[in-house]
Specification:
The relative contact order is 0.24. The strands form two sheets. A five-stranded mixed β-sheet has the order 2-1-7-4-3, with no helix packed on it. The chain has a two-stranded antiparallel sheet with strand order 5-6. The longest helix is centred in the C-terminal third of the chain and has 16 residues. It is mostly beta strands and about 140 residues long. The chain is globular. The mean pLDDT is about 85. It has one domain. It has one helix and seven strands, in the order E-E-E-E-E-E-E-H.
Length: about 140
């Protein structure tokens, strides 16, 4: 069964990561980039919009390529291409817009504001490691 790493961002720039396994990942199979679904999966109220992702080898999902297969396409700009000068094009490997079991990471946008729980223990551990390095 599928396992996805879900990156959820809100409008203010906060991001949380959640790993979905087997039964939790089921609703994402077969969806396309740009589709919306209920945010009850992450324990929030509202909607999630799928904005992109990548497969297990790092090949990005592109919204304008139909299907779930990997294809080499000629790109001049957009998802999957970092920089190109004017008139320059590159042939790059891109995955289609449908989420299959090969997808590893799914990027989502949340319409509301995420509630991020701060962990004070993580800050304490960081401070302790800094103190230890100063003593050495």
């Amino acid at each position: 069964m599928a396992t996805f790493k879900l990156n959820i961002s809100d409008k203010k720039g906060k991001t949380i990561t959640k790993e979905l396994k087997e039964k939790e990942a089921g609703p994402f199979l077969g969806l396309q980039v740009g589709s919306e679904l209920d945010a009850s999966i992450i324990g929030e109220g509202g909607k999630l919009k799928i904005s992109g992702g990548s497969d297990k080898s790092g090949v990005p999902l592109r919204a304008d390529i139909h299907g779930g297969a990997r294809k080499y396409i000629l790109l001049s700009k957009g998802v999957g291409l970092r920089e190109a000068e004017k008139g320059q094009r590159f042939r790059k490997l891109i995955k289609g817009n449908i989420i299959t079991e090969d997808v590893y990471q799914i990027n989502c946008l949340f319409e509301g504001e995420l509630k991020i729980q701060e962990t004070p223990t993580g800050e304490q551990e960081k401070n302790e490691s800094i103190d230890k390095s100063k003593k050495a």
